[in-house]
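S.,

As promised, the magnesium ion run. Input:
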Amino acid sequence: MARTRPTARRRVELRNGPAGALQRHQVRVLKEFSEVPPLLLDKHRLLLILVNLISNAKQALSAQDNHAHALTLSVRLLDECNLRICVQDDGEGIAAENLTRIFAHGFTTRKDGHGFGLHSCALAAMEMEGSLTAHSEGPGHGAVFVLKLPAHAVSGSS
Ligand SMILES: Nc1ncnc2c1ncn2[C@@H]1O[C@H](COP(=O)(O)OP(=O)(O)OP(=O)(O)O)[C@@H](O)[C@H]1O
Ligand SMILES: [Mg+2]
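Predicted complex:
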């Protein structure tokens, strides 16, 4: 079995979230960031997850043409030890029977998709000792992906 790279935690300031490129796609980006101190996180894995989730959301939004596009990024500490990051879109939504299948390697509903993105995100979340889950009220009702991670404070920061 392939060995996974050990996690390398680095100081990350979550309010500097990746959102700039979305403006070009007429996507309104709402940021709901609560006060989160700098944390020690595996920056590479976190970015891999966020880039994939935001890219999927952008595709789900462009598949749903009849309203203004919005993507909400929210970051909050649930308690001292647990961080929650949500990527929510009001795009095409996900049928109930697909909510678990979407994490399977190779599952895609997109013409040019590979079905690799969410599988690697779920693995990366597990390697960071966290979890990634998907929720949707069904087709046409958007989707939200919830990433939960252990929050390790940078020692010395308030
Ligand atoms: N935000 C979303 N809204 C609706 N469906 C989604 C969303 N994110 C993922 N999906 C569904 O999950 C499937 C799998 O996503 P995944 O990112 O693994 O693969 P992909 O985007 O199809 O291809 P790629 O490997 O290029 O990322 C998608 O094809 C789509 O059906
Ligand atoms: Mg994808």
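The radius of gyration is 16 Å. The mean pLDDT is 89.

- D.
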